Amino acid sequence: MDDPGKALRVILFPLPFQGHINPMIQLANILHSRGFTISIIHTHFNSPDPSKYPHLTFHLIPDGLSEDQESKFDVLRLLHLLNANCIGPFRECLEKLMSAHDDIACIITDALLFCSKDVAQDLGIHRIVLRTSSVCSFLAFATVPLLQGKGYYSNNNLDSRREDPVLELPPLRVKDIPSIQRRNPNDALKILRNTVEATKAASGLIFNTFPDLEEPNHPNLHEHFRIPTFLVGPFHKFFSSASSSLLTQDRSAITWLDTQKPDSVLYVSFGSLVKMDEKNLIEMAWGLANSMQPFLWAVRPGLVQGSEWLESLPIEFLEVTGKRGYIVKWAPQQEVLSHPSVGGFWTHSGWNSVLESICEGVPMICSSFLGDQMVNSRYLNDVWKLGIKLENGFEKEEIESAIRKLMLDREGQEIRERLVCLKEKMDVSLKTDGFSSRSLNALSDLISSFKSSSGF
Ligand code: UDP
Predict the structure, then answer these.
(1) Are residue 235 and residue 202 in the same domain, yes or no?
(2) What confidence score (pLDDT) does residue 5 get?
(3) Which residues, other chains included, contact 168 with Cβ-Cβ below 8 Å and sequence gap of 6+?
């Protein structure tokens, strides 16, 4: 018989990418602090370090990835392989846990691990989905089949249509539609479709975001996902993501920032997945140099295709910028953004980066490369007006002008003022009776209710 006083167990299954591990571990900590027992099923690839979380239990499953597949880090291919390879081991591990514990309430899986849907259905366990990005970008994902049906993905005249508005999804332009820029978008579209369909079949949907940011899209969620939804972010306001960093964060970045003037430094980072070519890196470098502003640049090894690290940067760039610039491989990002010397963030518009920047009141320059980033950057520029989007990709003149606008002009100041207002609303949302906190209560209640109902 169940012990009524015993904590309920929730089993989490994160997608093993940095931008997905961070929020899942934060959610694990949040639910643990709410009294749940947490087990995490994880792959060998990008495995979290269990020794950092003695209060959580970890269960390793084989992911079947070869060294070559891991090192190539082709995001779409990895998504396909992880879903195909993990379905059996995930089922086996879950079955074992279900026979060993009578306290399991549900599983929470990353939305992109859509293979978990069939496993949960077969084993008769409730599944909640964590979507680690914005509501607006997930609505764009859900609208892709409609856009496909209307011919948006036909290759005819795509170049001439790039700037056209998408009437079905304002304020997006054709170039912002998920995966539209891919030469062969079919693989990406299949993953989007599977993700959305598997989410529709879940018992609940969690977002790491907050409603003041997501209005007016938040109410539209129910048109696509007729399941309970929970906006409980920003997660990192409850627990930092520093401990789940897969790469070593170079703390000399903070020592260097300590020597700089308040609000003077532009922090530049494109997260953990983006890959760019050498030509764009060089345009980036000259945009930074010509702007004459101090910068801290996180250049992740592997960022530039075919390069180990900084080989493709021209010597003249390093000479011209001298002590005005500081380059690290990986930064303690949350700490960097909260440092008084940082006055701007040139980001790839990854959702964790966007939230971390908003929480520290740092205005953004927005690039975008894949997945949800195009939608996030469009909203940052056109709707929320918290960032300046680089519309032409990587052109040193546009980059220089955007940096000056952000760091020196009225435009940057106005963004800072908007961020102050938004932060106040976010703080209210996180208070005990605020939206995010109430949403978290409702999520805890839903999870607790599962134990009394069997299956789904
Ligand atoms: N990050 C970091 N150091 C860096 C760059 C990024 O710690 O030099 C962290 C950042 O704080 C964020 C995560 O890595 O939590 C990146 O997630 P995001 O969603 O922004 O982008 P992704 O890596 O998924 O593209």
Answers:
(1) yes
(2) 63
(3) 143, 146, 147, 150
For residue 41, is it within any domain?
Answer: yes
With respect to residue 192, please indicate whether it lies within any of the assigned structural domains: yes
Residues 237 and 265 in one domain: no
Using most ligand atoms within 8 A of CB, pick from 78, 134, 335, 353 the residue to mutate for ligand 1: 353
As for how many domains the chain has, the answer is 2
Could you tell me the pLDDT band of residue 1, with boundaries at 50, 70 and 90? very low
Distance CA 67, CA 78 (A): 12
Question: Do 27 and 108 form a contact (C-beta atoms < 8 A)?
Answer: yes
Angle in degrees, 0-180, between the axes of helices 396-408 and 410-430, rounded to the nearest 10: 70
CA 418 to each of CA 147, 264, 341: distance values in angstroms, whole numbers, following the listed order: 33, 19, 19
The verdict on 214 and 265 lying in the same domain is: no
Give the domain range for residue 371: 252-426
Strand order in the sheet with 229-231: 57-61, 37-43, 9-13, 104-110, 127-131, 204-207, 229-231
The atom of ligand 1 lying closest to the CA of 241 is 15
